[in-house]
Fold this protein.
Amino acid sequence: MTSYLIRAASVLGGERTDLYLADGVIAALGPDAAAAAPRGDGGSAVEVVEIDASTLIALPGLVDLHTHLREPGREDAETVASGTRAAAVGGFTCVHAMANTDPVADTAGVVEQVWRLGQDAGWAQVRPVGAVTVGLRGEQLAELGAMADSAAAVRVFSDDGMCVHDPVLMRRALEYVKAFDGVVAQHAQEPRLTAGALMHEGVVSAALGLTGWPAVAEEAIIARDVLLAEHVGSRVHICHLSTAGSVDIIRWAKARGIDVTAEVTPHHLVLTDEAVRGYDPQFKVNPPLRTAADVAAVRAGLADGTIDIVATDHAPHPDEDKDCEFAAAAMGMTGLETALSVVVEAMVNNPDHDFGWADVARTMSAAPAAIGRVSEQGRPLEVGEPANLVLVDPEATWTVDPPALRTASSNTPFAQRELPARVVATFWRGAATVLDGAPREALRERAGAGA
Amino acid sequence: MRHLLSAGDLSRAEAVEILDTTSTMAATQSREIKKLPALRGLTVVNLFFEDSTRTRISFEAAAKRLSADVINFSAKGSSVSKGESLKDTALTLAAMGADAVVIRHQASGAPHRLATSGWIRTPVVNAGDGMHQHPTQALLDAFTMRRHLVGGGEGGDGVGEDLTGAKVVIVGDVLHSRVARSNVDLLHTLGAHVTLVAPPTLLPVGVDTWPCAVSYDLDASIADVRPDAIMMLRVQRERMSSAGGGFFPSPMEYSRRYGLDGTRLAALPEHCVVMHPGPMNRGLEISAKAADSPRSTIVEQVANGVAVRMAVLYLLLAGGTPTEGSR
């Protein structure tokens, strides 16, 4: 068993300290850490790897509440193994695998399969999300209780990709999941207002002749659902919120005491509908890229806590689904490996917002873990806590090269873009999944062989 | 000019050059022998993913009168979701030695993708893409207007001139119309004043940023603008049904409020020409009286379409464009 002595890391961007990781936990901190590490005198069975972190920042392992791992069904786009490896490289120690697989994750059997694939892969904790309705069809509740009680212990339920648009069904789902402390994560999209929609409806869609996806189609569903949550006394989570109006509604709902949480994606923090002008399907995503005013509003919402978390909506697609006409292309973009850097660019390095590394830890680790009820993730970096952490070089810059990313798909909207901050190492349950910025394939193979 | 993808890409000088070249081409079309040798040995592919016999035969006639070989590739039914991909079709055409590709596609931006994705290296001419652009239609409309409004009809074509100060009213389904978008772009570039008239449901969100005026009232626009040209856009009857979007209550109501009937025809200034890109719905957006009136240029537009497309193919394939030597 390898243990790690991390020297002089800046915890959450604050004071520098040593951390000693052993037996899956943070065994010692500060001046005690070096003392706690056994000496390399050959008498100990424990191998201690020392890491110079004197230029690095330590954060709790990142937690993604919104990841498409595509398995089962679309292993050509991503597998649980390839997706969680990409997650580890991006600094994540836990991902929530969305339910829109084929077959849909709407039974205990499928969520347990995904959960087990995550265990076997060994790159990060995989928390399957269960579908709210059978087959994501929005007609009948799936067996939510069975999924909650399964080995996968599902707590987040979502028809993501489809909106639970029937108000009665949404009300029932919100009420029902209270029995096991679950949460419904809504993909807010009024279907009639978005029939055939390809991009944000506004100045750019008018010029390009692409069918518009109006902001009101998102805002109307969010307004309805926060009122439903209030009425039945449930909590509700809003996926990938993208408009200024949505931020206002969430702000109002929170002021009213409604138990609502909301997420924003990295791409909605930095990209606008102007990117679509070249008809490049890499910028086709749902909800669509919005206007500069919306980007400013979601940044402000994230900074002031109206928006609780950043979630990637990592949505891998094979090349043939993007190398085509805009209308024919699949919606979605990858995000696990660029998320942290994009948040640093948009928020931490942005003088317009008072958003530091502690806020990164809150919005990308502690808060998503709390929403997903993942007790061992998003914890403070203190003695006795699970050794889930990531070391980040805040001064590094890197250029996104799609083939070099670890995800099995190359549909990133950030190709050739220079981004700040780099993940140097990721530790999950005390084991290094990433060292020197690279996933530790050899270690995983050894672990697999030894198991 | 490397491709012709959008009327908005054309500078004033490029647009005038195309119109002037069109004038030269049109002059040859009144001769007994219409065929010119300019593109002999070159192959033009008409790649039509959407039914449009009129536009296809117009491009075909244009290419043949320049002595190019023409291959018609009708991919109707190859919808965006099934069959061979646009990319593979493009690679096939490139392998067969196409020198230019004329593309009509139901997806907005498909010609742009064809031209810029590295699939092929030949010039691409947009023959209409989704709800986006139809630049040769705008050019033939502008040519027709220039001939009547600047050149004085018979004889002079207004060579070297633009449309500065011309007042153009475009009426109908702007939301779904690539003709409207192309015309607004090109007419603005040429110095004309455009007023779009449509029910609010058939105008796109964001139209307020376009370089034109917008009105919901056809009668008021005719009275206030005193147009030099009025262009009626085709309105599909199925747009009224709820499946079609429910954009207006009935064809009757549309016709009453936005159709060019005899009364409105009489209210137009005497010199105002009546235009329509075709195919017409007689009795819906345009009455027979207006369509068949002496001031209608609808048939002439079709003839000018061939000359415009000859000019575009000539400028793209035979070079000779002094405004931009990018070929």
